Amino acid sequence: MSHPTAGPLRHALATRARVVVETRWFTGAVLVAILGNAVVLGLETYSGLSERWREWLLLGEGLFLAAFTVEIGLRAAAFADRPARFFRDPWNVFDLVVVVLAHLPLMRENATLLRLLRLARVLRAARLLPQLRIILVAIAKSVPGTFSFLMVGALLLYLYAMLGWMLFAEHDPGRYGSLGRALLTLFLLTTLDGLGPVVHEGLEYSRWSVLYYGTFVLLASFVLVNMLIGVVINSLDEARAVEGAARPPGGEPGRCPVPAGGAYEAELRAKIAEARRVLDELEAGLRR
Question: Looking at the domain covering 143-246, what would its CATH class be?
């Protein structure tokens, strides 16, 4: 059986933690810590600096881990009155996993896993930078469309590679002597790098090479690339819409935006005042 004062205490803890978490200085401090962690991780790649400043780098790593632990503790405390909502935000889950794993002995004994885990902390900057977060969400949303694009592109490469092998294998075995070489040649040509010399060499043994390369470049470098750009732009628009719905101005993701002005705001303020009055009466009754 829970203590009768547990509810008000959790509410008070969540309110105070939320005030700290939603301040600009807190967000700025966390961003500075993330960037500092990235700098320290980069310095460790230089063997001379790593050996000379080993103790200071280890101290910095410990301080950053402590700072991230305090941060995730405050973010979790902000949801003390509604713990389930904390885990509804994927960024909260990601932050919690990264911090908790860093404290496990198994991770700290494995240098490679520990470096990967510390590298994952750099990704946490995305939750503090709205534009970067939108781009990451857009990339995730574009995966299904990108997969379809890759399937179409692979089919196109295969067809043109087989056609190139049949037409040019005898005259240009270095580029079309096998299916693998033909695929590599065409893949490099999608970037239009070295297209001129290849076309000129092809004209020496067949005029049809102009039609072959022209249609391939048109389909692979223009049509397919523009299709991919369209998929990414559409995903970016969806990500902006999701971010706008999930994050009100100056608030945390997952909270509903409140329109400013009008009868709705006045009604909402009245409900908040009534809720506060009820909580005050409940707290006063518990103290008697």
Answer: mainly alpha
